[in-house]
Design a protein that fits this description.
Blueprint lengths: L1 E5 L3 H10 L14 E6 L12 E4 L4 H11 L4 E4 L6 H14 L3 E4 L11 E5 L2 H7 L6 E5 L15 E6 L11 E5 L6 H10 L4 E5 L8 H9 L2 E5 L10 E2 L2 H12 L8
Parallel strand pairs: 1-2, 1-4, 2-3, 4-5, 5-12, 6-11, 7-8, 7-10, 8-9, 10-11
Length: 261
């Protein structure tokens, strides 16, 4: 059975590890899956998961559907970033076209806690529109993609944290911090203090690796602009943990059958 994982996330890597061949049990060797991990190639030096790896796009939904057919893919798992909305939409269309069962693996979003001062936004553009009324020293943690939404804000100063260096257009007054999570609470506290941050901007990516910034902001009483994640296409099954996705794959492997989207 051939499983294609649209990956690039911690959850995708964990799923690939769970599906990798393990030691033989009392009934003999475990069935061996063929697992292909697809990485978008937007991050330099990605952490390579076990299994086959391909890098780059497919050419839209039609290209992905053709790839699924050509390579005999039996199951498709979309374990991309919660904000990779275009890829998720393409995966749903491709799975329906190629009649391949699709599962979306999405870590749960963050939840507002007592003491949080959150301002929700539907997009990066909406987030940028909120900033002039909230503060002047912005900690921007939305990644290097999409900085154009903030490029017209000439007055605020931005601390931009991302894994790779951003490309223009960017805010005119900014400092770039190249770093990769997980981050510690003490480290986030010190960063907010050292840079005199008065507003945090983040996407609702979920997960524990970058959550300490929210705790640090809450402790400091800072407003946080939270960009809502795009919805998963209607009718597509969603699980929150790699273990659930691995169970879905193993059930299909056992011949129970799964409906295609």
């Amino acid at each position: 059975m051939h499983v294609l994982i649209l990956g690039g996330t911690t959850e995708a890597r964990r799923l690939a590890e769970l599906l990798a061949p393990g030691p033989a049990g009392p009934a003999g060797p475990l069935p061996v899956l063929r697992v292909t991990n697809s990485l978008a190639g937007r991050v330099s030096a990605p952490r390579t998961p076990p299994g086959e790896v391909r890098v780059g796009g497919f050419g839209g939904a039609e290209g992905l559907a053709a790839w699924l057919r050509e390579h005999g893919v039996d199951l498709l798992v979309d374990a991309t970033h919660p904000f990779a909305g275009t890829i998720t939409s393409h995966a749903a269309r491709a799975a329906a076209t190629a009649r391949v069962p699709l599962l979306v693996l999405r870590r749960p979003g963050w939840r507002r806690g007592e003491g949080d001062v959150w301002h929700e936004a539907g997009s990066l553009t909406e987030a940028a529109a909120l900033l002039p009324s909230l503060g002047r020293r912005i900690f921007l943690t939305t990644g290097r993609m999409g900085l154009a939404a903030f490029a017209d804000l000439a007055d605020p100063w931005f601390l931009v944290r991302s894994v790779d260096a951003p490309e223009a257009p960017c805010p005119p007054r900014m400092e770039v911090l190249l770093d990769r999570g997980p981050f510690t609470l003490d480290g986030e506290r010190e960063l907010l203090r050292r840079h005199r941050i008065d507003v945090l901007v983040t996407k609702d990516s979920g997960g524990a690796a970058t959550a300490p910034k929210l705790t640090a902001a809450r402790e400091a009483g800072l407003p946080v602009v939270v960009v809502r994640r795009p919805p998963v296409p209607a009718g597509v099954p969603v699980v929150a943990a790699p273990e659930e996705a691995a169970r879905w794959v193993r059930e299909a492997e056992a011949g129970r059958g799964l409906p295609y989207y």
